[in-house]
Amino acid sequence: MATLTLTNRKPQLFTCLACQIAFYSAELQRDHYATDWHRYNLKRKVAELPPITSEVFAQKLIDQQAQSQSDAEKASFRAECYVCSKTYYSENAYANHLQSNKHKLAEAKGINQVKKYTLNNNRSETASSKPAPRASENKSSDEIAEISADMEEMSVIDKKIANAVKLEEEDCLFCAEKSASFDENMEHMTKVHSLFIPEIEYLTDLRGLIKYLGEKITVGNICLYCNGRGKSWKSLEAVRKHMLDKGHCSIAYDRDEDIMEISDYYDFTSSYSDDHSKVYVDNSELVLPSGARIGHRSLRLYYKQNLRPREERDSVIINRLLTHYTDNFGYQHNSGGIMIVRDETTRMSRVERFADQKSRAEFTARIGIKGNRLQKHYRPQIL
């Protein structure tokens, strides 16, 4: 009697699709959702940008803090030229003034014997005056350009999110209908637009899923069914019209990336098997040390079969092919078996069948248009 023992399953991983990382516990996953790194990657995902790693995000924070500090120091810059009796609030303007002929001429004449410049840094109330650091001493030109690009990218994302239409729980995803409650809105989308939530028995956050789908439509202008694989749209009205015209009022759930995208709102742990150490016994056959297999007596009917070897001669194969064509496709061959001629009656019968199917389809479409019953099959769903 042969036995089979199953090994232990691999530990379950809790994933974050926005950051493309995995955790060994749900608590770590929930803590990760509250971090600035996760929120930053969510904004990048809405803007159709790839996620960044935690190291890159930390470096961006350091660069942004340094840039903010440098901007604050530049904003507090104040220099006075007592020779010319002028005050400057820009380091470049002050440097250009010192190199000007007018300043050099006034200094040479000794109109006022004062210091060339005084730098007042007002970063704090108790701080003493000291020269403001130059940008070249802190950051190279490449780093400054990178920081500027990142800040511009963040501003574009924030601007797009701020200008996007905000859908409430009572707003329909596919039309301008506004229901009295969230439950009525779900009933409206289910009955009118045939919205079907996949794997609803494992769904744990329906409101969060609907909110995420709404952000995809309003902010990203993405069709829920095409899911970014089709044409891009520029407005909420355009993507809604596309989904209604094409019948795409459904959630993409065919590919692995589609399933993983909304997996954060599901919990499939109840479907996992807990019998990791169960032993399964196979009573159908016995394997001897020599390698021979002894079958169970209940299957002796199959073991006693004596199948003839398949004929592989060319003449037999040719006759088999001729028989296949004449029996299934309406061909005929002469007595010598040389020429194969198509049976005209069979061809005509196939044409007639095609014409009959076409007329039936046209009749069904005509009746559907008159009765307004072209909506796809309605699948009732208990929420």
Automatic annotation (TrEMBL):
Which residue stretches does the UniProt record annotate as biased composition, category Polar residues? 118-129
**Keyword Zinc listed:** yes
* Family matches, as InterPro entries: Matrin/U1-like-C_Znf_C2H2 (IPR003604), ZN622/Rei1/Reh1_Znf-C2H2 (IPR041661), Znf622/Rei1/Reh1 (IPR040025), Znf_C2H2_jaz (IPR022755), Znf_C2H2_sf (IPR036236), Znf_C2H2_type (IPR013087)
Give GO terms for biological process: ribosomal large subunit biogenesis
What organism is recorded for this protein? Paraglomus occultum
Q: Which family does it belong to?
A: Belongs to the REI1 family.
Could you tell me which residue ranges the C2H2-type domain spans? 81-103
Alphabetically sorted, this entry's keywords are: Cytoplasm, Metal-binding, Repeat, Ribosome biogenesis, Zinc, Zinc-finger
Q: Which domain of life is it from?
A: Eukaryota
GO cellular component, alphabetical, reads:
cytoplasm; preribosome, large subunit precursor
**Compartment(s) of residence:** Cytoplasm
Xref: Pfam families: zf-C2H2_2, zf-C2H2_jaz
UniProt entry tagged with the keyword Zinc-finger: yes
| Name the record gives this protein | 11110_t:CDS:1
Q: Where is this region: Disordered?
A: 117-142
